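Obj.: predict assembly geometry.
Materials: sequence records (below).
Method: joint structure prediction, all chains together.
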Amino acid sequence: MSSILTYDEKVAKYKSIIKFENVSAGTAYGGPATPANHMGMLMKDYITDTKKGFQAYIDYIKLVDNEAPIDFLNTPYPGMMHVILTTMWLAKVKIPGRELPDDDLWQIDEKPVIDRETYDFIIENGFEAFREMVLPKVIDMEEVKQFMQYISEEGPQQSKAFIENGFPLVSEIATAPPFEILSGARSMPKFFMDCYKIADKIKEAQDVMLPKVIENSINMLTNANAIGAWVGGWRGASGLVSPKIWDKLVWPYMKEMALAMLDKGFIPVFHLDQNWDRDIERFLEMPAKSCVLNTDGMTDLRRARKLLGDHVAFMGDVPAPLLSTASADKVSDYVKKLIDDVGIKGTIITSGCDAPANAKFENMVAMIKTAAEYK
Amino acid sequence: MSIILQLIADLEDEKVLVEVEKQLNDGKSPTEIFAECQDGMNEVGKRFQEGEYYVSDLMMAGNIFKEVNEVIKPYFSSEDGETLGTVVLGTVDGDIHDIGKDLVYAMLSAGNFEVIDVGVDAKPEIFVQALKENPNAKVLALSCLLTTCYDAIKETVEAVTEAGLRENVKIIIGGGPVDQSVVDYSGADKFGKDAQEAVTIAKELMEL
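Observations (raw structure tokens):
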């Protein structure tokens, strides 16, 4: 059954979870691609026919909510998702109906579009000049214009619909630290090699990029009257990069972005794909009870809770394979065990990363229902 | 511990190349140098499994190994280069991701396997064809980063079975969202949680 909480009460609940003052676990929906199939839309129409696509998105969430109460949304509707991803990672994105079959999921086509000399270009010319140079290589700029128009026309309506339906969107946008942006544009294998060979140069470029990245993020959050945003940790995961790289090129930038959000009253959600066990204690460097770690099932949350105590709230972490292939009972068992181990205080149950496009409806319901009813 | 082994294990890329060229010029057998490089890669794999090294280190090592290989290759005669076995590798139908696959390629090659890479977005028949063309291949390695491609793994396993090749070929799967539940779902034999484990499993399945 739907939550009895109003929109404002849910926002208050979110804040109470971050303060570890909650009396029940929170539940969040996060699955940009999940609704399409269940609502009978081809993926190509779902992401390009934005009015219908958004309606399918919110209708799907309401269907889940009718069975199991959703407190918050961790992902927005993915209208023209390829433009968002391209502008975030400066990499080409293949989309259904164009480069991919009509009902396939969008995919990043990661090829290097910058070379080693580009770091000097960034240092000399700044982040905006760099973006202006790279973007036309990875996307038709006409599409960027169309996206801007779509956001300005439909963004406010979408926000209104979330409020009217009682679903606070706690992660309005995904922000990418400089490390992630460069990794996308240079391609991960080449960028990682650069990190070994010319780390100081990359640091210099990232130092130039960071203030503008922060300024752009804060502007977007302010314009949207947002609650908070993802600080993306994808290629910078502890499981992927050596400590030397992480300490120098990943964490200082993620931290500064999150602190800047906090400073302006937005709640940072560290969206952490892959394994962050090695460096999990570094989140103690954030102000206590101020942010959320959003993990995908690969980071050991039991260990994290022991090390972090009530310093940082968790949002996670039902793994994608469980949601798409397992039974509802198995999903429910996973959630119960997670709650048994990490407790309900400072805990929001949701899918690990995004719920997959082929997540079973009954599994999404089982995840939310168990979180809401167990303890 | 040989100098080359040590330099590769410590990811000293430029020094490795200088040392390899020096030893070749001094007349040392390329086969022996190559074996030391492989030992270096084994040490990298060991450090990865022990948690001392991370994926970026594996990538760096793979890159060094590739560069060294390019230097040594011209010195090999045709009878050199006996491998442990052949693996057919690719990313399954509908999935265009290649980073994980390429890393597995690098680690298997460094582990002295011959690797037949069929690329990304490969339909089941492409894998079947590669297995037919390489009847000595005992392992098929399937990479997948999208949960929506679990069916493509399953269909590939079924295609291998239908082609009458399944008895002779073990199938391993890997990629971000792949775990034992996907092995159960698809009918594959095992999953590897990382590129280094792909080497361990390939050896295990080939009973090496």
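Conclusions so far: The longest strand of chain A covers residues 228-233.
To do: check interface contacts against the pulldown list.
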